[in-house]
Amino acid sequence: MIRLENVSKVYSRGARPALDGIDIEIERGDFVFLVGSSGSGKSTFLKLILREERPTGGDVYVAGRHLNKLSAWRVPHLRREIGAVFQDFRLLPNKTVYQNVSFALQVIGKGRREIDSTVPEMLELVGLAGKERRMPHELSGGEQQRVAIARAFVNRPPILLCDEPTGNLDPGTSVGIMRLLDRINRTGTTVLMATHDDEIVDQMRKRVIELKGGHLVRDQDRGVYGLERA
Ligand SMILES: Nc1ncnc2c1ncn2[C@@H]1O[C@H](COP(=O)(O)OP(=O)(O)OP(=O)(O)O)[C@@H](O)[C@H]1O
């Protein structure tokens, strides 16, 4: 589903590479934690997959596409295959919960009837039934993240990328969000989550990929956050 072959990224000439010679394959349906200290290259890794950045060396393949060769007008098609969730939720502040989720379908040209049947289903899945008419500021952080996940997943993309999705949430709320991501993964969705949340990683025992200074230093099945704590 995602494959990087000898991928490097240098942002500016002479700078240390943000990623250096990365080889990795993530299969359909995998759940993968991407860990590493600040500046290790996690966000750059996610940006290459979304084609927000391009590699300076090597090849990136996502959902059957060779991104090096993907022309700009095809990038929106790639992005339909990838739901993205961020630490800061990024909801539209002037739209209701329902509108935030339905907007994601409107912009890809879905019809009213399909939207009206899909959105309630998705809000039910994320545990927000009954809160359709709330505005984002009337929700807790955990609820806002559930809206963001509903929006990212409403068109059932095969890949969900999560950049620190529990970074702004307390531990109890984070567990709820992880249960939801786990459920989404069990539907066959590939989940790739960059995180600093050691408790979550240690609880879930999924595949762990660790970056250090732009190098891939660990790829561990049923892994933990830090080997020294194993
Ligand atoms: N747009 C950019 N221009 C120049 N350098 C960048 C840019 N984005 C990232 N970098 C550099 O690339 C390296 C990797 O950064 P990246 O944001 O990928 O790390 P990260 O692991 O996601 O960090 P964090 O956990 O703090 O989000 C860092 O040295 C950073 O300064």
Broad structural category:
alpha/beta
Low-confidence runs of at least 5 consecutive residues: none
Which overall shape is indicated by the principal axes computed on the Cα atoms?
Answer: globular
Give the biggest beta sheet: 6 strands, mixed
- Total count of strands: 10
CATH topology description of the largest domain: Rossmann fold
- The CATH homologous superfamily of the largest domain is called P-loop containing nucleotide triphosphate hydrolases
Helix proportion range:
25-40%
The overall number of domains is 2
Which ligands occur here?
adenosine-5'-triphosphate
- Strand order, largest beta sheet: 6-7-8-3-9-10
The average pLDDT score comes to 95
> What is the percentage of strand-forming residues?
15-25%
For this entry, what is the oligomeric state of its chains? Answer: single chain
The CATH architecture assignment of the largest domain turns out to be 3-Layer(aba) Sandwich
Keywords: ATP-binding, Cell cycle, Cell division, Cell membrane, Membrane, Nucleotide-binding
Subunit structure: Homodimer. Forms a membrane-associated complex with FtsX.
Subcellular location: Cell membrane
InterPro entries: AAA+_ATPase (IPR003593), ABC_transporter-like_ATP-bd (IPR003439), ABC_transporter-like_CS (IPR017871), ABC_transpr_LolD-like (IPR015854), Cell_div_FtsE (IPR005286), P-loop_NTPase (IPR027417)
